[in-house]
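Help! Submission page says 'invalid entity' but I think these are all valid:
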Amino acid sequence: MPVATLARSVLLEARRGGLPWLAAASLAVGLGAAAFLSQVALTDGAALQLAVLAALLRACAVFLIAAQVTAATLREIQDKGLELMLSLPLSRTTHYLGRLAGFAACGVALAALFSAALLPWAAPLPAILWGVSLALEAALVAAAALFFAMTLPSLVSAIAATLGLYLLARAMPAIQAIAATPLPEENWAGRLARGAVDAIAFLLPRVDAATRTEWLVYDAPAAGAYAAAIAGLVLYGVLLVAAGLFDFHRRNV
Amino acid sequence: MTRAAPVWISGFVVAMLAAQLAWHGAAGPARLAADTLPPAPSASVLRLASFGEAPAASRLSMLYLQAFDLRTLDYARLTAWLRALLELDPRGQYPLFTAARVYAEVPDAARSRLMLEFVHEQFLFDPNRRWPWLAHAALLAKHRLHDLPLARRYAAAIDRHTTAADVPLWARQMEIFILEDMNELQAARIMLGGLLASGKITDPAEAAFLKQRLEALETRR
């Protein structure tokens, strides 16, 4: 099981690199901020605490995974560790998928920890659904970060590209809503801009529909909407894996 | 084994830390960037700025609004902010709670009316969830503004627009309640008791806030 062995080595590296401590620090900051804010709220204190904590933890999970994947991958490339690994009798596909499985497992561990932290305020079922969605979202971010770390030359550019893609995808529905409100006298440039925004939206994952704080604060999602959100994440994750494999096989190492 | 840093560098670090503490102390406590409430952004802009985290953004924005001095607050801007926050997170109750319980309970009748009208306007978008705030608005219209027609209009709106089974009978019959010759304290007792009994108030901070208001009414009489 070379994929499992590679995934295990990635997990070990993440543990030794201090990822558990960073996760614990994120949790401490999130709990502290939520507790402080709920003290100044006139009403809705529990919902405020839950909403702020969930939003913070989601952002932390995405950032930690993106940073971990890009830093570990670029370090391995720069230390010539990647060349050494490729000299082993393993296919490039196995190598790529093994590393990605390890990073995705880091995302699953973070999502499990963060969704468990919400249980004092959220009902168990929404918290579990939120956690599963966050795990898949983190796996998608790991796939994007691995793709950019393999294709871009520096740590900063790889992290910027990963987080840029993620934030653009999160903001896209709001951008589309703004673009869909035409001026009284709309010209061709306005129509072109709206068309361009819609075209870009087609190329982005629907992360806005996944891991929604509303599921925790109000009601658990409807089965159809939840399945659609999860399917969207899986589909885009597989697309990123395919693109990453395509690029990795073409790489001259 | 770590090496010891030169003494002058250690001294420099301590001196710069002292300078930072002195600078911060001399600057005084931090203040809001603006003393007056800035114009409200649209809900779309707030949604964009929050990257889709509407429930958190709406509640954090409410805490931001709370920081402004009530006496100098521009109510037209405040209403626009509350409207945008409700559009951002339509199921959130915080904007209507503060509109009815804080911003409408000011001595200035004109500002109070503005806020009561806002509560009525927003009630119409989701009557089954927002009726408690309009019920309170009806009481304020009767006992603070002494405007019986306005109070009856709000009470009638609750009866006409609410359809959910969990809306209590006393709320549906608010119009009779308004017409009865009872004082503000009695009415507030009935309404608060009814809200607590219906399980609508679950937040301890909100319950404490309402209890405090009731005690203030009792002291005033």
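Support: the input was valid. A stray whitespace character was the problem, and the output above is from the cleaned input. Chain B touches chain A at residues 44-45, 47-48, 51-56, 59-60, 62-63, 66, 91-94, 97-98, 101-102, 203-206, 209 (CB under 8 Å).
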